[in-house]
């Protein structure tokens, strides 16, 4: 049972790291909306991370630690690239939480569903297109969405 | 790229392995992926069949209600187009032939009830659509929590999340 929790925690560690980086790469004065959105996402992922740590400790497990560092998913030279990185992070964490949904029951599953939905919404909030499966990185953008079909 | 990792660990690396449970129809819904991972007993399969039936019913009802609410207003009809397409895709997933789970033969049939009076304005129609979809997500979450199969739970949960995504864009173009 602990593997799904541990792998979801690993994903949240990565997201927390990335959002700290994205926030540092975004000017609060020239891009206040994006900066605020990134800050909110950072706080949200820290919260999810802490919930997972608590669940693992409840189970008597040692929560997996964050990696010393990670590789950013792409260049972060402008707002569009930052948004793209955030979208990727949200899809990745949505995938992690969806995996946890499949491997839990009851209240833990409900918690995982809530986190999955949050990630899916943030993905769109960062300019991502809706998809049929928000937790599948391979899922193409919704073909019915005019924003993705030009 | 000034970011030099101290370990060759891409951000997505720990996540790539997490897509193990895909949206490959519902063929895996009977594998007991949730819980202890053993084969699901027959009564659990029957219970999940009921969950699928209920999800199909909820999606079909929402689809008709949204279509009906939007019908008087072309701009609202255009706005909800992607949402209706999503529901069509979701109904196809639940009705997949390889699921091996009985579903209603006509999942897109009209519900037994529909709004008695049309919305008085596009904004009102859109508000009705939001209400329908919000109720749908709540139903999908309940069903996902109820599902015995982990794969089915994942499918229903991602369906709720997909609806959430579309709700963000539910505004009438000026």
Automatic annotation (TrEMBL), chain A:
Organism annotation: Nocardioides imazamoxiresistens
Protein name as annotated: DUF4439 domain-containing protein
Pfam families: DUF4439
Residues spanning the membrane: none
Every DUF4439 domain range: 5-129
Annotated stretches, region: Disordered: 125-150
